[in-house]
C-alpha cells in the first residue's frame, strides 16, 4: 500500500509535534535552559504557522490533499477555512507561550509545559485537516488532554480542582465521542469522513437513524470541548484555577481545535440535512444566554472571561444552525475575531497579574481606573471588551456579529435570530460592566510592579491588531477565506 | 429718481425691524434709553424703507420679485426660489405695518415706563414686525411659513409679557396652542399647493392650479389654508384666544390687532385669491366662517364688561368683514376691497387701542366702572377716541365708512347678480353694521358718561345763569370759587363713581412716576393715526387701489346710515338711567355673564380638544410604560436568572456531570425527534 506525502502540507502539524520531542531532547542535553523553553516553543509554533501561510493566501488551491490512498481517498485535506484555523491555533499557542515566558516556574517544569503546549497545538492543527474518523478522534484528544496537565501543573488547590473538573468531564466526553464514532463506524461501515459509505448510509432508513444518533453523540462530545451549555461546567473552574496564560490557551487554542473538529464534521453532516444542525442552534441559544447571564454577576476576572467564552461559543456555532456555503466561513471568521479579542484581554490580565500579583488581576474591582493608571493596558482591554460586545469603535466585533447572524436571518430562523439579538443586548451590558470599571474610580494595587516588556510588546501588538482590524475587518476575516 | 441698486428697499423693510430685535437683545443690557433709541430708529428706518419702496412702486421702478437669500438647492424637480413679490397692495400694506409699528414703539416707551423688561418687549415688537413684513412681501410659501411661525412665537412672548401673572401666562399658552392647532392644516394646505406645483413660488403655484382639472384637490388645500387663516385671524371656531390676549400690554394688543398677526390671514388669502375665486366650496367655507365670526363677535363686543375686550371682539368682527370681502370676489377680481378695509382698520384700531391704553393708565383699568366718564375727566384723549369710534362704526366721511360701504355695495351687487356666497355675506354684513354701530355707541356713552353729581352740577350752572342779572359781575367773581378753562369749579376732584378714592391714590402714585401723557413723538404718531383715520377713505381715489367708487348705490348707503342711526338711538335710550351709562346693563344678567366668557368657547376648547388630547397622551404614555416595563423586566429577569445560575453552579464535579448527562439525553432526543 503506497501513500503519497506532501511534507509542506503536513508541516503545520508535523513541526509542532516534532518540536515537542525536540524540546524534551534539548532539556535532556541542556538542563539549565529553564524558561527559555517557552521562547523555543513559540519559535517552533511560529515556524509551523509560517508553513501554513502560503496555503492561506487567497490565490492558493482549496482544498489541498495529501496522505492519499491508491483509491483516491485522502486522509489529510485542508481548505481555506481549515488552514485559517490551523494558523489561528498555532499563532494563539505561540502567544500563550510568550505570555508564559516571564512567569516564574520551577526550572524542570518549563520544558514539560512547553512540550505539552506544542503537542496540544499539533493536535489542534491536525484535527482541522483530518480526513478520517480515527485520526480525527486522536487529534482531537491530543489537542485537549494535555490541557488537563497544563492546568494541574500550577499546583495550587484551585488548579487541582479545576484540573479534576476538566478531567472528569473530559473523560466522559471522550466516552461520548468514542460512542458516537463507533456508531458512525457501524452505520457507514468505514472510517472515512467523506467516503461513499456516508451517502449510502444516509439513504437507508435504518442506518440513517443510527447515523443521526452518532452525530448527536459527536456534537455532544464536541460541545464539551467548545464549552457549550450544558457541557460547560468545567470552564469557569478550569480557567479560574489555571495560570492566566493557560487560561488563554483553554479558551482560545482549545476552542479553535474544537471548532475545527466540528467544522470537519459539519461538512460531512450536510448530507443529513437541517434537523441535525437545528440541535446546534438550540445549543447556541442556550449557551449564549447562560454565558451572558452568568457573566452579569461574576466578580472574578478569570471566571468572567470563562463565562464570556461560554457565551461567545454560542455565537461561534450560531451560523452552523443553517446549511449554507457561508455558514462555515462565518463561524470560523467569528472565532478568529473572538480569539484576537480574548487573547488581548488575557494578555492584559496576565501582564497585570505578573506585575502586581495575581490578587490584583483576578478581581474585576481591582481594574478600577486602569485607563488612567496604565493607559496602554486600559485602552487595549477596553477595545477588546468593545470588540467582544460588538460595539463601535470595536467595529470588527460588530462585523463578526453581523456575519454570524446573516446566515440565520437569511434562512429565516427568526426565533434563533431574536434570541441572538437579545443576547447581543445582554452582552453589551456584560462587557460594559467591566469597561465602566476601567473608566471609573482608581483602585491602586497593593504592590505595584513593572510590566514585563514581553507582555507590553504583546499587548501593544494586540492593540494594534484590534485597531487595524477595526478599520479594515477584511484583513482578519480573509485568513479563513471570508 | 431712485435707482434700483443692489440694495432692495423691500429687503430693508424686513431687515430693519428684525435688526431692532437682534440688536436690542445683543447690545443693550440695562439702558432703557439705548433700547428705545434702537427701537425708534429701527422703526423709523423701516418706515422710510417702506416709503422708499412705495415711491419706487408709484414711479414703476420697483423690482417685481427681488431675490432674498437665493434659491434653496433642492434639485431639478422642485423649486424653492424664495423670492419676494412686490405689487401696489403689498407695498401699501407694508407701509401701514411699518407706520403702526413705529407709533407703537414710540408709545410703548411711555406706557412701559417702569417695566424692567421694556428692552425685551421692544425687541419682540421689532421681531414681530419683521415677521409680518415677511408675510406681507413674500412671494414664496416657504417664506410665508417662516414669517407665520415667527409671528406665532412672538405673539406668545408679547401676550405673556407680564408672565408673573397667572392669567397672562394662560392667555399666552392659549393663544399659542389655539393658533398652533389651526396652523397644522394651514401648513398642510400650503405644502399641498407647493407640491402640486413643484415649486414654492406663489406665481408658479397660481399658474399651476389655475389650469382646470384639479378642482377637488384645490378646494381641499384651500380649505386647509382657510383653517389656518381662521386660527391666526381669530375666526370661528378659533375665536376665543383673541379676547384673552388682552392680558398682554396694550401696545402689544394694538400691534396684534391693528396691522400684524390678525391681519396676516387676510394678507395670505389675498395672495392666493385667484385660486380662491375658482373654488366655490372654499368660498362657501370662508363666507360661512367669516359671517358667523363677524356677527357673533359683534354681539360679544356689545356684551363685554371691559372696553379692551370690546375692542378685541370688534377686531374679530372687522377681520370677518375683510374675509367676507375676499369671499365674495368674482373670478378675475383683485382683493383691493379687503386690503382697503385692512388699511383703514389698521389705522383706527391702532388709534383706539393706544387711546384706550392711555386712558387706562390714567384711570387705572379698562373695565366699565373705571372707564365710565373717563373722557370727562381726561378730555385730552377725546378727539382720538371719537375719531376712532366713528371710523370703526363707519360714519361718513371717515376711512371706516369708505372701506366698509364699498364692501356692502359690492356684496349687494354680487348678490343681486345671483351669487349665493355674496347673498350670505350681504346678510351677515348688514347685521354686523348694526352691531358695530351699537357697540361703538355704547363705548362712547360709557366713556363720555356723566355721573349724577356732575349732571346736577351742570343743572346748577344753568339755574345760576337765570339769576345772573341779580348779582353784580364783580361781586360774583369775588365770591364764587375759581373755575378752570371749561367753567368747572377748581377743587379736589370729586370722588369718582365707584371706589374712586383708592383709584385716585393709585393714579396719583403713578402720575408721580410717569408723565401724565406720552412724549411728543408718541403724540405726533397718534395724531398721524387720527388724521389717517379721518382722511384714509381718500385712498379709494388713489390710482394704486383699484376700487369702483363711482357707481355705488346711494340708496343702499343711505339705508345703512339710517340703520346705524336707529341703532345708535336705541343704544342711547338703553343707556339712560344706568349707573355707568352702560347700555349693556339692560341685557339680562345671564346673557351678559355668558357673553363675558365668549359663550363658553373656552370650556368647549378644554372639553372638546384639551381633555381628549390629554387622555390620548395619557394612554400613549401608559402604553409606552407597558412596553418599557417589558424591557426593564428583561434586565431584572436576567439579573435574577444569574442569581439562580450561581446557585446551580456549586463547583462540584457531580453537578457538571449531571448537566452533561442531561445535555446528552436532550441532544440525542432532539436529534432523533427532529429527524
Automatic annotation (TrEMBL), chain A:
Localization terms from the record: Endomembrane system; Membrane
Keyword list, A-Z: Membrane, Transmembrane, Transmembrane helix
Pfam families for this protein: Proton_antipo_M
Membrane topology, record value: Multi-pass membrane protein
Keyword set includes Protein transport: no
Predominant location: membrane
InterPro entries linked to this entry: ND/Mrp_TM (IPR001750)
Gene Ontology terms: cellular component: endomembrane system; membrane
Residue stretches spanning the membrane: 6-26, 38-57, 77-100, 112-130, 136-153, 165-187, 207-226, 246-266, 272-292, 304-323, 335-355, 376-400, 412-435, 456-480
Residue span(s) of domain NADH:quinone oxidoreductase/Mrp antiporter transmembrane: 130-426
PANTHER family per the UniProt record, alphabetical: NADH DEHYDROGENASE
Name of the protein described by the UniProt record: NADH:quinone oxidoreductase/Mrp antiporter transmembrane domain-containing protein
Organism of this sequence: Leekyejoonella antrihumi
UniProtKB/TrEMBL annotation, chain B:
Pfam families: Proton_antipo_M, Proton_antipo_N
Chief subcellular location: membrane
GO BP annotations, alphabetical order: ATP synthesis coupled electron transport; electron transport coupled proton transport
Gene Ontology, cellular component aspect: endomembrane system; membrane
Key word ATP-binding present: no
Topology in the lipid bilayer: Multi-pass membrane protein
Name by which UniProt lists this protein: NADH-quinone oxidoreductase subunit L
Annotated source species: Leekyejoonella antrihumi
Lineage: Bacteria, Bacillati, Actinomycetota, Actinomycetes, Micrococcales
